[in-house]
Known about the structure:
The complex is a heterodimer of chains A (about 290) and B (about 300).
Chain A: H1 2-51, H2 55-58, H3 73-81, H4 84-115, H5 121-131, H6 136-149, H7 157-164, H8 168-179, H9 184-191, H10 196-207, H11 209-225, H12 228-233, H13 242-252, H14 257-292
Chain B: H1 2-42, E1 45-46, E2 54-55, H2 59-66, H3 69-100, H4 107-119, H5 122-132, H6 139-146, H7 161-186, H8 190-198, H9 203-214, H10 216-231, H11 235-240, H12 252-262, H13 266-294
Antiparallel strand pairs in B: 1-2
Amino acid sequence: MATTTTVVRAAPRRLPRRQAVEATRRALTHLLLIVFCASCLVPFWWMVASSFKQDFETFMFPPTWIPLWPTLENYDKVFNSIPFWTFVVNSAKITTLAVGGELFTVSLAAFAFARLQFKGRDAIFMLLLATMMVPGAVTIVPLFVLMHQIGWINTHLPLIIPPMLGSAYGTFLLRQFMLSLPTELEDAARIDGCSSFGVYWRVSLPLMKPALATLGVFAFMGQWNSFFGPLIFLDKVELFTIQLGLALLRGRYYTSWSLLMAGSVLATIPIVVLFVFLQRYFVQGIALTGIKG
Amino acid sequence: MAATVRRKRFRWRDVEGYLFIAPHIVGFLAFMLLPIVSSMYLSLNAWDMMSPPRFIGLRNFQQLLYADRLFWQVLGNTVYYVVLSVPPSVVLPLLLAVLLNQQVRGVSIYRAALFMPVVTSALAVGLAWAWLYDGQFGLFNYVLSLVGIKGPSWLSDPDLAMPAVVAVGVWQGLGYNMVIYLAGLQGIGQHLYEAATIDGAGRLRQFMHITVPLLTPSTFFTLVMGVIGSFQSFGLIYIMTNGGPLNSTNVYVYYLWQTAFGSSRMGYAAAMAWILAVIIFIITAIQFRLARTWVHYQ
């Protein structure tokens, strides 16, 4: 009781002080955020700036934040010393087929697990989920052996076909999403004589668009940035993906940091462009995983 | 008559369901279940992929556990990696999320900046940081030189290489875990904070007694995923240090990769993989057990 009266009486006089405290708090928040963001962005700036430097400038002390003698020579070297465009085409081909296929197979399976009744449905779904726990390291060796036996080593097939046939994670994500959607439209379509596939294709798939976009950007990111798979399945340089191909810059020449940075910039550009335009889906995707997990 | 019709329809319903899941199930059987099962068998064999596999029972496991000193060193390195990387990966993003959740201006810009490293490939990140760490001309040692410290050659020093790589891994994952926490923060009712303010609780107490306990499901998620992920780190190690110097950053999956694809010891590598699976499984199970004591579901 006593405290309440004090507060009420003191409130008008305290107000300016409170505002000052509030302003300081906000300023501190911004300051901390700026420090963290800078620490996230400085390496990128360093990468981009170095990629436009001539070699001698990378060995200057103190280092320069903005190239004093900017040059495109490193990019020229990337384009000319390795089959850069071949790598881009390989990566684009693998990524498109893998992601496109995955979205199709996974949405089919998710539709069945969420909307259709069939024998063993829940048991099969649980089995799929259980294998999500198995670390990738366990399957990689036998997977390599399998690919070796069917003659798929040094082709793009091991990088395209397995992801094309879907991931348990994707099926799970889309099934959960489907379960959160109302079924009225689908029921109406069925009454109008739509087959199950018709319902899936004409009604459910369009409704799943936001979840498909989320899954799509993540699958794209995973495929484009993937390193381990290409490293294991590909030996021939002309089959390399962009990540693997740019790693070639590392050993083949003496360490030219400016050249390596030009390579890194080129490997990063497509994904950053995608991120800038589809930021919302990246954020939603993670948020979904976190909540379900 | 009616019964047969109904039965037929039932069967069609099943077939239809199987057709829908068929592509996914084929992939699952061929590229998930088959490898898991054959990996068990493979781990009981000695096989170099040239001569036919030779069944040797549990000898791979025996050798790994009792005779392979590098295996134990690598396991130690991996645990070291996990211990160094998990705490900051769990705590720092929590603080960032709380800062971002203050309704400050420019949230989307901050969030985008913090998220940039997440979308960048291990190759680009690894190369850029290797350059930052460069002993002679790297940016870090330049900054250290400003305060009169002669910086070391980070990635060639057996004591420093691991923490240096871990720092990059943590840096890369900050934005991801931050978004997980942000989603968790959305779920905490504003009325709790209002009630606490009326009761006279300051910001710090609100943070400790409302935010932290109610975010524990998110914390648990980042913790479990962080442990699983860091036990399997590979890309940054491959690009930045190749496991060196002196095997000081040789971690589990890197050694496994060397064993299988460098020295073609497929059975031995499969055995290693199963030991890792068991370790991860046990640690995860313990975490779920312990979760009962500290994770609060609303």
